[in-house]
Write a structure and sequence with these properties.
The protein is α+β, with helices and mostly antiparallel strands. The protein is built from 13 helices and 57 strands. It binds (2S,3S,4S,5R)-3,4,5-trihydroxy-6-oxo-oxane-2-carboxylic acid. This is Glycoside hydrolase family 2 TIM barrel-domain containing protein.
Amino acid sequence: MNKIFKYGFIVFVLIWGFSSIEIKAQTVTINSGWQFVLGEKTSENHKIVNIPHTWNKDDAFDDEKGYHRGIGWYKKQLFFSKKQKDLIHYLHFKGANQETDVYVNGHHVGNHKGGYTAFNFNISEWVNYGSYNLIEVKVDNSPNKNIPPLDADFTFYGGIYRDVQLISKPKQHISLSDFASDGFYVDYYHVSEEKAGVEIKILVNNFEDKPINTRIKVTILDAENKPVFDKKLNLKNSAKASEAINIKFSELYNPKLWSPASPYLYKLHLQLLDEKETVLDERHQNIAFRWVSVDADKGFFLNDKPIKLIGVNRHQDYENYGNAVPIELQKKDIHLIKKMRANVLRNAHYPQSRELYDLCDKLGILVWTEIPIVNKVTDTKDFFEVCHTMQKEHIKQYYNHPSVVMFGYMNEIYLRLAFDNKSSEIEKENQKKSAYKLATQLEELTRKLAPNHITVMAGHLNELYNETGIADLPMLFGWNLYFGWYDKDIPDLGIFLDEQHKKHPKRSLLLSEYGPGADIRIFTKTPKKFDFSVEYQAKLHQSYYQQITDRAYMTGMTAWNFTDFGSEFRGDAIPHVNQKGLLLYNREPKEIYHWYKAVLNNEKPFAHIAISYLDKLTLFGNNTYPIQLYANQNTAEIYLNNEKLTAVSFKNGVANLQIPFKNGLNTIKLISDMVSDEKTINVLKINSLDFESFSRFGINIGSHFYFKDKTHQITFVPDQPYKKGLFGYVNGESYQLNKDKHQGIPYNIRNTNSDPLFQTMLEGCTNYKLDIPKGHYKVTLFFVEPKIKPSENIYNLKNDNQISNNDKPQRIFDVFLNKTCIQSHFNLAEQFPEKYGIQKETLVKVKDNEGLTITLKPIEGKPVISGILIEKMN
Ligand code: GCB
């Protein structure tokens, strides 16, 4: 070939190549550089944002009540070349919360309701070619009585928080208009260990004015890329129409089955070809052979083998991101879930990013996925319609994932009704009926659209689910049970479940939620209900695990929640965050996550000394301190400071041990045959408050737990009745809003990040003594008024919501340090904003043998005090 000809040929190929690329199907994300305005678009105040984006990542966590629930406008210019004219263009939104209107060059192209499913708009007829086109998107997360969720324990962050794509396709393509699904559905028939059949339904759209002949090519490869099936089919597409084609393959013998232990995937390739065999469109999907069933007595079965489902629930948000979380960060969650050897994941309470389901397919995690009809329904035609559409989108978009085995549609639908004391009996009856009616319809829809899946629903501890019969609609009913937290005690779980199983012997049950709140800054020797301690979390999870694994009829359990998550109205130890996670909001594991690894993982040797939160500890006298050790071993030897302390054996992954720490640095070693672990901890052993080996000392007054405080860079020790030589209260009682529930007050304390220090307090203490030597001290006292106007929180409070601003309690007291009055007529309710953390610092001179006495002299009501921090100045 001569040179000129050769280069000319290359140039021709390049130009031809480029121009042909333009008319081919393509999908491009258009996430970067949107102009965004919060509020009406007339506002000039725009900023440039990238998607994923939410406007609530900060205001859902500040001290102010509420977060922006309203409109946000996004706009962007998109260039379409003249060559793109023959293509059909869709704007594809993977998720925007919660109602979206899209405009192209000023024309309204579509509206979508619901914040957690994907949607497409065909924008072709509004596009101008050879020029820029203005795309405007209005997103609204205002409360809307016709869009679920109406009410729930999580933050409804507004915005376009998942990818936006421009999808361009030739005029014949695999459909994108069937509820934004991938345009094909994979079904299996006669699946067994011996053989398995695949059947695929494909929807093809023709946008041409005339009939067109196309071909569909389907290939299935095994995991080693060896073709297993291959088929081509001719298609005659009518003008401007959509056709459905079914392709049924003969059975495959000895299929490799999919399971958590061995998630074997086959690969499906679909191609739509024109008469010249040019590829017009294509799809790729991992598929797998597996089948599931439930039995009311024997539990859950996968491929005819019993499998106890043990796993977690997941919310999609993340510290500092709200719900606009980069997908790679989210994928890490799924890896962490697999690492703990969970075999099931409930994506609560809404469909999550499809990339995560892909990962569950690959890693072998069974998935329960659901739509967000939570706490209550609205009895309107519109609400019902939105719910139906949402469930159709949900099932059609997630249908092909082999990991998805359970489709759900409601969570705790009678929660609001159960706490409603305003409605009349007739209104309540109507609410019961309308939720039941909707459930019946959605159950029917789900069974019809997903006949090989298990239908599910979750309820809270209330007879309403039995009484109305709603619990018998789905194939599997999940109880969300919080015994030992919101309700009675930890051992009541098994009693309740046995009772339910006896009364409803045909119903299959799952424990779909359980778990206490836990904060790694809070630890104690004496864990109690509602104290948010690490130890109480361990106690509850470990007992629940035993209770569920003891019961063959229970299909399994999913912990609430995989990680801490945002719930704006909450006042847990970290306000605005639901702290029931096995991991923190930033995905740092709490100890309980490691315990699950120990108890669920029987493949790799694992051991963990569960004191990551305990870098420093103050102990009095010769006291020991209890710790937990986690391992999937039978026994281990424990060494303290290089001397053998004892041998332990593990039951359900755990061994409990009292450690006789010495003063200073201590090293604990766990050594078993296969694996070992080592931790170091700095212990301050104190016999008196002599301020010799320490210069600062803090007490978490009115509380039984240690609180590790970042702001003050100290761990406040638990309180005690006065002990000579040390410290303590002479009188007063630990304040509890509700005697058998809360430790202290579960509210956001404003003006501080040390909420647990303030939330627990002594009431009616007039004398508090500390036996400290003579000297100069800086003394800081901590106060908060516990009573004025709690924010509404049905999850925490139930009937404690009655205190209003009108019956503001007046507690007025003088504060003395020894003989000096440092504050007279202290009136917390009057002088400070609601639930405001108050800190008072004073310098005090203590004389020989005098010690320090804090006197809170009542003038009206009972005085309160939350904490004290003393620093020796010389
Ligand atoms: C539940 C709800 C869940 C809450 C959880 C809790 O039962 O289903 O949405 O977050 O309780 O922490 O109270």
